Amino acid sequence: MKSSRRSFIKKTAVAGTGVIAAPTIVSANVFGANDRINAAVLGVNGRGKSHIQGFMAQDNVRVTTLCDPDMNVLKERQAEFKEKYDQKVSLEQDLRNVFDDKDIDVVSIATPNHWHALSVIWACQAGKDVYVEKPGSHNIWEGRKMVEAANKYDRIVQHGVQLRSSPAINEAIQLMRDGYIGRVYMSRGLVFRWRPDIGDKGQSSVPQGLDYDLWTGPAQKVPFTENLVHYNWHWHWDYGNGDVGNQGIHETDLCMWGLDVGLPSKITAMGGKFLWDDSKETPEVLTSVYHYPEENKIIQFEVRPWCTNTEDGATVGNIFYGDKGILVVDGYDKYKTYLGKDRTPGKSGSDGGDSGTGMDRGAGGTDGHFANFIEAVRKHDKSILNGPVETAHLSSGLAHLGNIAYRTGRVLDFDPKTERFINDPEADKYLTRDYRQGFEVPENV
After folding, report:
1. CA distance linking residue 369 with residue 57, whole number of Å
2. What is the span of the domain harbouring residue 222?
3. DSSP letters spanning 377-410
4. How buried is 439 (Cβ within 10 angstroms: 0-12 exposed, 13-18 middle, 19+ buried)?
5. According to the lineage, what is the superkingdom (predicted)?
6. Based on the domain organization, do 84 and 29 belong to the same domain?
7. Which of 8, 169, 237, 389 could cross-link with 157 by S-S, CB 3.0 to 4.6 Å?
8. What is the pLDDT of residues 39-56, one digit of tens each?
9. For all residues of the chain together, what is the average pLDDT?
């Protein structure tokens, strides 16, 4: 399946060309099988817990440092680490100190979205290889800067879309490449998740142990509120990207991979808040459409909360439409097909081993994606990455474009080559942000 991945990257990596510097090697170690790789996990309140497990499941890889601006969370993870692995682990609140630590070889980033790109860039500049959680970026401009940094400093950067390491999903992609469901012209991404009322907790004092200045990082600082820390920042524009840019990145990535396309030329979106009078800023319901006139292809994307139907059994997944049938991806590691107007069941596949969460099943789960990352680190070979940095930029970029169309309230024309909107300075403002002093994503990485 490497040929499909490489085709996807080749078709989409040309955007913004002329600014990517020739690779320069900084501390480009090639590790032998017997060389221990020391890892640090940045952000350990949520997804970072799976990152710890992903690293510790690999041969001769050890998590030596946990980093989070909340010391209370750090101490909890440290105690859990000691109990589970019977090993000590260092704690650090400031990620800059992690990048300065010469004994750390790789880092994983599971911070809030607004920290992802700057963390990747700083890590690359420090000579670290990086596993970054989805979405790779908080906006389109900084996604391109991530690609530039990974290339300039010759670093291995893996994007946390673990379905790219699933044998079943790779099999599904190959079926489409082989014409099993005919000419594939449309993909549909589904994010139907239970997202309840989060209320509005108002302002309060900063909890003891939390470095709120570090938590805020590149965003503009506002008075502390529990509406943001620790999880519900997802639903506020300065920190998150709504569910299309949260859960949805797995699906935007697969939509683009399956159709073998990059960023679109025309985007529209509509949605809003229909259920809860709470502090969320991002829409609860969002329908976005991405059109590729030159390829004669289209992507539809649906975000829905609360009670809803399934679509061919899927609530989180993808549906691909061909002129001979459809292919349905349910979650991260299984697919089924239906052929002809009678919907005759066709080929299907699954990695198996359902853990109950849907996140770590089979070879395509988090552990498998980390295994692919570590293999690439040991060989210092980015060509074998299943989710290279370009996918972080592009799959995140698709979500960002949908959000921009929603926020501007109109159909947008976009130039994938320049990664700017066509004669639309209002929409262009959403391509980047005002960075707080000391936490700027640099123009020249």
Report:
1. 11
2. 165-199+216-355+396-431
3. HHHT-GGG-SSBHHHHHHHHHHHHHHHHHHHHTS
4. middle
5. Bacteria
6. yes
7. 389
8. 999 999 999 999 999 999
9. 92
Other beta carbons within 10 Å of 368: 23
Give me the CATH number covering residue 149. Answer: 3.40.50.720
Claim to verify: residue 189 and residue 326 sit in the same structural domain:
yes
Question: Could you give the strand order of the β-sheet that contains 157-159, starting from the edge strand earlier in sequence?
Answer: 90-92, 61-67, 37-42, 106-109, 129-132, 157-159
pLDDT of residue 19: 28
Q: CA 70, CA 226: separation in Å to the nearest integer?
A: 13
Place 20 in a pLDDT band, splitting at 50, 70 and 90: very low
Tell whether 210 is covered by a domain: no
The whole-angstrom separation of Cα 333 and Cα 349 is 8
Residues 372 and 414 in one domain: no
Separation of alpha carbons 21 and 14, rounded Å: 13
Shared-domain flag, residues 370 and 270: no
Q: Using one digit for the tens of pLDDT, what is the confidence trace for 182-232?
A: 999 999 999 999 999 999 999 999 999 999 999 999 999 999 999 999 999
Residue 132 DSSP SS3:
strand
DSSP code, position 23:
P
Residues 143 and 195 in one domain: no
CATH number of the structural domain spanning residue 189: 3.30.360.10
Structure tokens at 320: 């691909």
Q: What is the pLDDT of residue 366?
A: 85
Contact 372, 383 (CB under 8 A): no
The number of distinct structural domains making up the chain is 2
Average pLDDT over residues 380-393: 98
Q: Is the peptide bond before 425 cis (omega within 30 degrees of 0)?
A: no
- Residue 154 CA from chain centroid, whole number: 21
